[in-house]
Amino acid sequence: MLEERKEYIQQQIDSLGEKIICLEAEMKDLRAILYAKFGDNIQLEDEQNNGE
């Protein structure tokens, strides 16, 4: 029972990791589109993270 639960949780972690990768890629694409449209008139980067 414990092993099954651990496996289920690991699957959930893996699934969420994949979603993070997809969302980060989508954010990168959207950021590029917005900067192409608005140039330096917008600031999308977080000042604390310096765009990372």
TrEMBL record:
Subunit structure: Heterohexamer of two PFD-alpha type and four PFD-beta type subunits.
Gene Ontology process terms (BP): protein folding
InterPro entries named among the record's database cross-references: PFD_beta-like (IPR002777)
Molecular functions per Gene Ontology: unfolded protein binding
Organism, as annotated: Meloidogyne incognita
Family: Belongs to the prefoldin subunit beta family.
Protein name: Uncharacterized protein
Source organism phylogeny: Eukaryota, Metazoa, Ecdysozoa, Nematoda, Chromadorea
Gene Ontology, cellular component aspect: prefoldin complex
Pfam families cross-referenced by the UniProt entry: Prefoldin_2
